[in-house]
Write a structure and sequence with these properties.
The chain contains 1 helix and 9 strands. By secondary structure, the protein is mostly beta strands. It has one domain (12-103): Beta Barrel (OB fold (Dihydrolipoamide Acetyltransferase, E2P)), CATH 2.40.50.140.
């Protein structure tokens, strides 16, 4: 593994702008015509979001994440990918270091929608 250089310093107020929450991945579906994307239906307690994630080539079975809690950024603007809208971003570990990514997960179950930080 190659470590990335430490990024430039940000203020706490910049960090506080990110809304990172725990959600349970309820459904994992294929995105037609994409060799990377899957569609996650994620339960955040008071709301549900559709989040597109490029994990097809990273896992033998993308269904293994169904039912798991993970961290997501929920206050990004919607993004169009392959004709579909993604309403957030999965917070994963390893991609930037060319390591097969893994989910960033709470150490034990917590209520859906709980904020990180």
């Amino acid at each position: 593994m190659t470590s990335s250089p430490v990024k430039s310093i940000v203020s706490f107020s910049d960090l506080e702008k990110l809304d990172i929450r725990v959600g349970t991945i309820e459904k994992v579906e294929d995105v037609p015509k994409s060799d990377k994307l899957v569609r996650l239906t994620v339960n955040f307690g008071e709301f549900t979001r559709t989040i597109l994630v490029g994990m097809k080539k990273e896992r033998k079975d993308v269904q293994e994440v169904a039912g798991r809690q993970a961290l997501f950024v929920v206050n990004l603007p919607p993004k169009q990918m392959m004709g579909e809208t993604s309403e957030g971003m999965l917070f994963d570990i390893g991609y930037a270091n060319s390591v097969t990514p893994v989910l960033a997960v709470p150490e034990k179950p917590v209520p859906n929608g709980v904020n990180a930080g």
